[in-house]
Design brief:
By secondary structure, the protein is of the alpha+beta class. The protein has 4 helices and 8 strands.
Length: 153
């Protein structure tokens, strides 16, 4: 039974995430350790750059201080950490758009100071806007950011 200090935030299928687990996330290494504890393979951690990920638009790259691939599950799911100058809805949307054509699924973690972490699942969807579809064009798959902000205090 957890103590009061270890109030359960979320219960997964096999693992309980405790408040102290979230409070311990204060660096890139701590984020990687958190995902390793959840069962993700973080052995292939890799510092990368926006350009390597195909992110070239200045408005998207300007706030990025650091990017790291934390986990890659056989190319089907990648987890990235983005340290930004500030985390805004606009930055989140720009990053979601930048990942639009990437293979597999992505979960990105956004932070500016490790006080707040935004866990962002980039959900694929097919726009239903009939005005954008004509017999000569196909609908393009887009990415919708599903954001879970977590204040680690």
């Amino acid at each position: 039974m957890p103590s009061h200090d270890d109030d359960i935030l979320t219960t997964g299928l096999d693992l309980e995430i405790l408040a102290r687990d979230i409070q311990a996330i204060n660096s890139a290494d701590a984020v990687a350790a958190f995902f390793a504890r959840l069962g993700y393979n973080t052995n292939a951690r890799l510092k990368t750059s926006p350009a390597t990920l195909g992110i070239t638009a200045e408005g998207t790259t300007r706030p990025i201080r650091n990017v790291e691939l934390l986990a890659d599950h056989e190319g089907l799911l990648q987890i990235y950490l983005f340290e930004l100058t500030s985390v805004t809805v606009t930055h989140t949307r720009h990053l979601a758009r930048a990942f639009r054509n990437r293979v597999g699924e992505q979960l990105i973690v956004l932070t500016s100071d490790y006080e707040t972490l935004d866990f962002v699942l980039l959900e694929r969807y097919l726009p239903t806007d009939e005005a954008s579809a004509t017999p000569m064009t196909q609908k393009q798959v887009s990415r919708r950011p599903r954001v879970l902000p977590v204040n680690r205090r």
